Amino acid sequence: MTVPEVSIDPAAFHADPYPILAQIQETSPVTYVRQIDAYLITRRDDVAEWERKTHILSSDQPGGLMTVLMGQNMMRKDGAAHQAERRAIFPTISPKTVREHWATQFKTATHTVLRRIAPHGKCDLVADYAMPVSAEALKLITGLVDMPWQRMDAVSQAMIDGCANYADDPAVTTRCHTATAEIDHHITITKNPDPLSLLGVQHAAELSPEQISANIKLAISGGQNEPRDAIAGAAYAVLQHPETRSALGAGALDWSQIFEEYCRWMAPIGMSPRRVIQETAIHGLTLPKEARAFLMFGAANRDPRVFKDPATFNPWRDCRQAVTFGAGPHFCAGAAISRELIAKIALPMLFDHLPRLRLNGPTKFQGWAFRGPDCVDVTWA
User: Fold this and answer.
1) Residue 377: left if φ>0, alpha if ψ -120 to 50, beta else—which one?
2) pLDDT digits (tens, 9 = 90+) for 321-372
3) Spatial distance between the Cα atoms of 113 and 108, rounded to a whole number of angstroms
4) In angstroms, what is the C-alpha Rg of the chain?
5) Domains of the chain, with CATH numbers?
6) Is the full-model pTM beyond 0.85?
């Protein structure tokens, strides 16, 4: 059968994709969207099933934006090639390393940021708190400790804009190329990196310069904006729902529940692209060979077949069926780092140090491939 086609307003989709995705999800398990030239897989169980089938929906995308702009990192490889590079970086990202090596350094960096903003009585949680906290952590993890945190955020944003540049804006592409060149420069000048950093473990595993460069760029593209957006966005969600703040104070709710539900409700990573390497059918709907398919994590995490009242932020719900970090061999390598940095450090430290924190204006979210708040203006006594 032919896959149904829908037309979207790209600006409206960028501002809020969820109403459009809900309609698509209800109508058909697979939908073709001409404006982004992709087949969207939106239902939770289908996303979880088909992400595992890399022999049909491949991560290897020679012509994909990420590969063209950043090099072929491990996320854009399948099978043995993917697993070999994943094993090489495991000493950096293992839960044990996160607990025993990174956590204390994350806390120190976060405390420095809080000490800097506390006297001001107000800030934008995105630019003034979440952005430097995420970037300082990423400097440690990558080994690029001499890159200013402001530049870490800037190059990350330039790369994710490039990877989502399906409208083919040449200015966006140019900014992305400038950012990747800056990262390569810092890789070249960094000597004696932390042995457990990504730079250190990849050198020890004798990966090629091209592999090291591509995987460092991957870590920066995903390891900056997603924690940044989740820290600021989850803080906003708590401030918008006073009952959650009371429950946290009473011990009836913990920050891990806040984090998991926020990422289900407002997925920082909205989708993962795949290449259809052989004609296949999903529920009888045919995807042609070499087509582009998007596994829509944001839509899957709001599938009403799995989650009751999916558009409602409810940190008491069971989030175990969410596909926030993926569901197959490409399950997010940085999941343990994200949970430690956001749920155990950045969020509780923010509310502990600024107990009278409150919102000071409206907050607007944007994006569909990557989604987060533009700003979260707050004040405190």
Assistant:
1) beta
2) 999 999 888 899 999 999 999 999 999 999 999 989 999 999 999 999 999 9
3) 9
4) 20
5) 5-379 (1.10.630.10)
6) yes
